[in-house]
TrEMBL record:
This is LytTR family transcriptional regulator. Belongs to the LytR/CpsA/Psr (LCP) family. It comes from Amycolatopsis keratiniphila subsp. keratiniphila. Residues 89-259 form the Cell envelope-related transcriptional attenuator domain. Residues 357-438 form the LytR/CpsA/Psr regulator C-terminal domain. It comes from the Bacteria.
Length: 467
């Protein structure tokens, strides 16, 4: 049985961005949207100094609607979805909405990322946390004597959503302010409501499992074809990581189309869009849509960029007893540094440096890299030293004179760099040299390789042609 990933988060993006352009009166039509108390009250999140919001967008591989009712068989057949979604969250994207006219930033977390399960010492793939928590919660409720199946299921799903959110927070270091979940029905109906989205492929491709069968070049896709496009993993150079990139390309295309005004100029499409959202989207109970619309008014379609968290090993063999089982290995320290540099997170109050002063040398040839890494280390409590450029060097290294511990911590934070003792480094200080093959935190803010894929960010300014 295939565990098929779905980029259903795209549906929510259309609803969110569409609500912004359509105006305040349209929000009254969204009063019937399903709400869930996923964010712990009374604090919906620690607001950053710039007033931005961090939103977790979840695409749940479920064969039900937002009321947990089974989808009609004819819809499942058209989507080639199979009978069981295994309660996986196969799409996880953190979206930062700025307060003003800055760029919107988003980063994807691969569904197979190997992470700690919240509240335990165990690890699992991040997309399995939802199902594991749901099962455990239901078992605990039955053991406590509860017999109402509907109530047991409702509480179990709430616990599963909270656990997924917590896992993302612990991995990324980002405090989530709001939660949104979409499913198969969301993607199917909303992608059709907007009249399809343009995508571009460098080569023709086919995949029997997902139903993908696309020619090379630019084309507009919707409904079942759109779902096949974003869930394809076979016959792609980087398998799941390329599927993440397709998710980003499609989501950027949706944002571009809606924000350009074409979709919202058609009353029939707007009506279909709103009804699809009400049937299939789940939002956290603390989300004030009117305030959100005010915040989104300054955002343009071209100001949205999508990236992917850094990956240590995309083919990680996590269980020696089962050598064919693989996951995506990630380093939480590296992911947190990446997220901080990407979304521009800053301490809410000035803090005195807790670590040694760090000089950063840019030998990579990437403009501005030393300054970005220096800022990132300062956010982590290290003192700011000198930044400079020097002749090209292939590899990176962290040098120290008399204290190996801080150097090792910095090396891990920057993606697992080599550590060397060097008499040239002043006592009590650390020197970071960034080489030409450096792809760790800080690279994404410049013009070089970024995140897990070593590729440029996906934006909504144009239609990117992909593999």
């Amino acid at each position: 049985m295939h565990k098929l990933g779905k980029v259903l988060v795209a549906a929510l993006a259309v609803a969110v961005f569409g609500g912004t352009a359509y105006g305040y009166t349209t929000l009254e039509s969204l009063d019937g949207i399903t709400r869930e108390d996923v964010i712990e009250a009374p604090d919906p999140g620690e607001q950053p100094a710039d007033g931005s919001l961090d939103i977790l967008l979840v695409g749940r591989d479920a064969r039900t609607d937002n009321q947990d009712r089974p989808l009609p068989p004819e819809i499942l057949r058209e989507l080639r979805a199979g009978a069981n979604g295994d309660d996986l969250t196969d799409t996880l994207i953190v979206l930062r909405i700025p307060n003003g006219q800055q760029a919107v930033k988003a980063f994807s977390i691969p569904r197979d990322s190997w992470v700690a399960q919240p509240g335990t010492k165990d690890k699992s793939k991040i997309n399995e946390i939802f199902g594991r928590t749901k099962f455990a919660s239901a078992s605990e409720q039955r053991a406590a004597g509860k017999t109402d199946k509907a109530e047991i299921n409702k509480q179990a799903i709430t616990a599963a959503r909270k656990a997924t959110l917590k896992a993302v927070e612990e991995l990324s270091g980002v405090k989530i302010d709001h939660f949104a979940e979409v499913n198969l029905l969301s993607f199917y109906e909303i992608s059709k409501a907007v009249g399809g989205v343009e995508v571009c492929l460098k080569n023709a491709t086919k995949d029997r499992d997902s139903g993908a069968d696309f020619p090379a070049g630019r084309q507009t896709i919707a409904g079942a074809d759109a779902l096949a496009f974003v869930r394809q993993r076979k016959n792609l150079p980087r398998s799941d990581l390329d599927r993440v990139r397709r998710q980003q390309v499609f989501l950027a295309g949706l944002a571009k189309q809606v924000l350009s005004g074409g979709t919202l100029a058609n009353p029939a499409r707007v009506s279909d869009l709103i009804e699809a959202v009400k049937r299939s989207v789940v939002l956290d109970g603390s989300w004030n849509l009117l305030d959100f619309v005010r915040q989104m008014r300054g955002v343009s379609g071209g100001g949205i960029a999508f990236e992917t968290i850094p990956v240590v090993n995309p083919d990680y063999r996590y269980d020696p007893r089962h050598p064919t089982w693989t996951a995506v290995q990630v380093d939480p320290a590296q992911v947190r540094a990446f997220a901080a540099s990407l979304i521009g997170a800053q301490p809410t109050t000035p803090q005195a440096p807790a670590g040694p002063k760090v000089d950063v040398v840019n030998a990579s040839g990437k403009d501005g890299l030393a300054a970005r890494v220096s800022e990132l280390l300062a956010e982590k409590g290290y003192g700011k030293g000198d930044t400079k450029a020097e002749a090209g060097r292939r590899t990176s290294v962290v040098r120290y004179s008399d204290a190996a511990g801080p150097a090792a911590e910095i090396a891990k934070l920057l993606g697992g760099l080599d550590v060397q003792k060097a008499d040239s480094v002043a006592a009590g200080q650390v020197e970071v040299v960034l080489g030409q093959v450096y792809k760790g935190p800080g690279v994404s803010a410049g013009g070089g390789a970024t995140g897990a894929l070593g590729q440029q960010p996906i934006t909504a300014e144009g239609t990117d042609c992909i593999d």
